[in-house]
Specification:
By secondary structure, the chain is α+β, with helices and mostly antiparallel strands. It contains eleven helices and twelve strands.
């Protein structure tokens, strides 16, 4: 991160690819956090044959409480026969609409709908012993289990294993995420959304603490992890890895909207 001629911060990004390429430590262990959402959505997709792209995309999303995103969450809740009160995530600071506005509410709504489709108890669907979470654990096959920021289980993997994570997402999820990338991240500025918009064939999902997973329809999978958890480093690192010129530098604005610095690959 440069402000003028001064390097103000440096973020080390580790990379692993399923084609054998790596930078840094591909065996670094990290929790998947929200990068696992496309796999956590599989029980939802398995339960219905009439889902809209918007329903699947929002179940895979870390949304920004934009109107179209909140509408998609409401649509999934209606399918689940549930209300906002049934969501087991909490509210999120500085977000509207209480629990509905939490960036994981689409995932939670999809979990409620999955419970309805499969005849599983609705609550407590976030419990590690619930049939839904047991199915998700089977799908992910992760290592040590922790608790994610929204209350559901999360799993640790090496970066090398995380690189192949999204290659295991079914075609229906691939198609929905590529059709509605703006629901997955946001209308602007979300690196996962931007990759899906800028390059055909990719799905991508960012996670907390600087993790980013993506997969191409040709079978290539990648995972990037900022060692210090700085997600802002992911765009330029991804640009270097995949030759996406549009992400090579991230402008840094001040409170007046003036560009006062830039985040880019270390020189």
């Amino acid at each position: 991160m440069r402000r003028g001629a001064v390097v103000e911060a440096v973020h080390q990004v580790h990379v692993a690819c399923t084609d054998g390429r790596s930078f840094g430590d591909p065996d670094l262990v990290c929790f998947l956090r929200s990068s696992a959402k496309p796999l956590q959505a599989i029980p939802f997709v398995e339960g219905y044959d009439d889902l809209g792209d918007d329903e699947i995309a929002i179940a895979c999303a870390s949304h920004r409480a934009e109107p179209a995103q909140l509408d998609a969450v409401r649509k999934v809740l209606a399918r689940a026969g549930a209300t906002v009160d049934d969501l087991e995530n909490g509210p999120q600071e500085c977000r509207p609409e209480g629990k509905l506005g939490h960036n994981c509410s689409g995932k939670h709504a999809g979990m409620l709908a999955a419970c309805r489709a499969h005849g599983w108890p609705r609550h407590p669907y976030r419990d590690p012993g619930h049939p839904l979470q047991l199915r998700i654990a089977e799908l992910i096959g992760g290592g040590e289990r922790g608790v994610d920021g929204c209350g559901v289980p999360t799993f640790s993997l090496t970066l090398r294993a995380a690189a192949e994570l999204l290659t295991r997402a079914p075609d229906r999820i691939h198609r929905a995420m590529r059709a509605r990338p703006e629901l997955v991240g946001g209308s602007s500025g979300a690196t996962d959304t931007e990759l899906m918009r800028l390059r055909d064939g990719w799905i991508a999902k960012g996670g907390a603490e600087g993790l980013f997973c993506a997969a191409h329809e040709d079978g290539l999978g990648i995972a990037l992890k900022a060692e210090d958890g700085a997600y802002r480093a992911i765009g330029p690192a991804l640009a270097h890895l995949l030759d996406v010129d549009e992400l090579r530098e991230t402008p840094v604005p001040n409170s007046r909207g003036e560009i006062v610095g830039v985040i880019g690959l270390a020189r």
